[in-house]
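Note to self: keep these together.
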Amino acid sequence: MDNRMNMLIALVVVAAMVFVAPASAETVEVRGEVVDAAFQIAPFTWTARNFAGFYYDSDRDLMSEALTTEVAVPDTIDAGDLTYDAYRIKHSYTNPEIGDYFAIGWFGTKYMAVNGKPYMISPIILEMDKDDTKTLAAGQEWVLGNGYSLIVKQIDLGGDKIWLELARDGVEVASSIICPRNGVEHGDKFCNRMTISGFPGAYIVTAGDVETTRTFVYQKDVGSENSVPVFSVYVDCISRGTDANAVQFKHAILIGDDPIRLIGAEVGRMNVETTTSESVRLQNAQNLYLEMDSDIHVAEGLWFHVADDMDEDLVENYRYYPYVEHACSSGPVPPPPPPPEDTIFEGELRVDHGIEIEDDVRVEVARVSTASRGSVTLRISSYQNGAAIVLSEGESAVYRTISDEVIELEAVEVYSGSVWLVITGPADWEVTEYYVVGDYGQVVHIRGEVVELVDEPTDIIIWNASNSALFWHDLNYDLMTETLLLGPPCLSQYDRNIEAGCLNYFTSPVYKEYQVYENENLTVDNNTGYHLMGWMGDAYAAIGGNACKLCKLLKEFDGDDKKTLAVGGDGLDLDRGFALVANRIDPGGNRARLSLMKSGVAIDSEVVSAGEVYTYTADIGGESDIPIFSCSLDAIFRGTETDIVQVKHIFLIDDVVTEIEVGDRYGAMEVAIADMGGLVLSNADTSIDLDPGTRKHIMGNMYFDTADDEAVVRFYPVAEYSEPGVYEVRGTTEELTATNPTPDADMVWDYNTFAGLWYGPDDDLNTETLTIERSALNAGTHDRELDEGTVTYKTHPVFWEYDLKPGVSNDRGDYGYFVEGWMGDAYAAIGGDASKLCKLIVASGDEKMILMSGEALYMGRGFTLVADQINLNGTTVDLTLKKDGEVIDSATVSDGGVYTYTEDIGGTEDVPIFSCYVDAVFRGTKTELVQVTHVFLIDDVVMEINLGDEYGTMEDVAAYTDEIVLANTEPIDLYAGARELVMGDMYFVAADNETVIRFCPVVERIIGGD
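Structure:
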């Protein structure tokens, strides 16, 4: 009873003040005590004691809401004279395993204060009383609300484990195996479990992660909030029947998965004025006129009713009272709309391949199983709205995109390594890209400068393009505009919390000449240049020089870059659906008709003479004639079979404008200043806790990564990219000029000045350095050549502990291995030998992976793990490790055991190649499966580095067991505009500038692609 409003109790206690009557056929009105404004001489406050519409915890006599009105005049409540306060109050989960939470009343409805923050709230959609139970048989579904359903996939034959799936709108969002049997209990981890002490207004909170024994948990990161406890349920017991097995649940709780952020919000006629760690206060932003016989909306479901003065006492009475309306059920919920019918895609899609639909929806084949009917696991996402869908052969499922469109996916037939897939959706939708996902889900991380705090607080920490590769930098013109500033006050070894208002992001536009003007002295629609600005790490054009109106810079060809187009051909694909087509040339061969296309439709066309500029302008963002595209027609050629044109100086921006206003939110940041001259964002009302081992969202694709180290605060900003493409990870820039022609010392790049080199933040491990001797370059004498032996690369192995499940060791007793950075990637140094390296493929930590019997887990480099068979008792599983389809090892592993495969490689015996922890084994009536965590895998192909081996322009000049040294054996010329290979995917890139030597090292990272 403590989890809902006790309306009936309140009605009995304050019967004289509260009246319940149907406001309409769909709502019930619950009102508070009546006040006569004509005689009001002091502030009046409604709480749950005199207003049954407010939330009240009667068991503990705790109230969370108060509504106060100052003296009326008498027919008006002036702006600022109506105040609504909502306080957080301690509430214990009925589930004893997951601790406490804070409840908060919000205009009469019980909400959860997410992570204890009263200004970040979610409605409680379902909360079982402590004695409530729910029983489901295998295969049954429990509709929870808000689109969520809990499904008992299967109960194992031993009757002591269940396989549970949580789905939203029919799509799986979480699944796990729970074992409630005494002595071998096994549940999910519950993050940020709170223990609350103290009293209202002065609570003390401690929090930490716990491993439960019987609880199924679904938590997700939402915005700046980590591990939001969306759903949890306690598995009470499993019963075995003659016809079917069943499971009994208790203590289920479900909250909304899109928390409401109250800071600075407008709620009806009320504005949020102040927030504290304990409460939120709202005030009316405008006058409320108490017109007789009227209803005045205040906020959410809260209203004032003003009586019609009909008592004939010759006094104008302004009797008014607050009331809330509660909706009544109006019949069954209408069925969902039928699935879409237009076919978007039909065909075979292989594992680790994907398609992109409408430049938005991405569908990837994660893995397939040919066991039984066969099944496929699909990864599907629409921007950040991602999910995993498991389909058996012949099954289908629907997915709702972030734009609320619905697509249907059907696994028609499952093969070994692929699936025949049919996708239907909205009319005219089509596949816009095919791509390869790559090994184990490729992601490129570009990190900024690492900060480690010890002892005293640091005054200010600054990241910008000079020390952090995640920010935009135009090397040719040395343009940079972005700064991320932390403090003051700042953090210390003992203070991990970035307080609200202490993190700020600055950016502003800079002017840049068009390439066609700089090189040809030709203008673009009479413009010599445009304004450019970094925005969350990418380059944008500031329309009309306005920092608040941004269009993504898509293409800008440097210098003499040229492209050739066949007349009448497919044209030149640019980006975002844009393409340039050469339609025809005139008989004289002096002019050509060029067309700019978007999504296959011509949006502009013009006849251009050789040596002229073709420009397409559009009215966008409230600005007229903005150049969207331009190029110069360099040459026209008439051939015997094909006519061609050659274009240079291509410039293209997106024609979609991002308009930025004060108050707009991006992750944890809010726009504080937005004007022509620049933007300032701040975490004005959102604190960021740098807890060990966490990733906290800043904005866009930027995060703070914090090392999993309790002793120090070590963290850095990082940008994450997962879209197919080529990404450059650069090091810090060196610049030599006529006044500063030579460096003061050797130029050295390490993990902190070159994000392209490997770094292990949890243990602060790094092994690589790249060095150029100080005497190698001289801007004063125009010496741009790095002579032989002036560039050196060094690396060495360091010891790294295995990431094992706490309290569990592998079956060899090893607790670590040697790791070595090699050209920016992590390798295992076999036997600690720096010259014998195996690629580190997977180190997954506590991430859970579920394998059905017969299903293969694709781990990369041709390795797969197959769950062959689960024994009759459901306590052991036969696991097989394969490479390129061939069995290399197999073992029978018990529930709670570690499977390790070793091999004699590189002259060293029993090298651990693969290991995993068997977290749970499940045997059901229809399905057998195993849940594994802490997967570790290195390649079994040893790369032996020997003296004299060549890598690009570098050669091994020293190969010891404890160190590798490479040096350049041929000159590297850093001419203006150079991009010169160093080794592997590492290059030196120089600015296209003859007067200075400005350059940096870069590493190319490629995701997917055809």
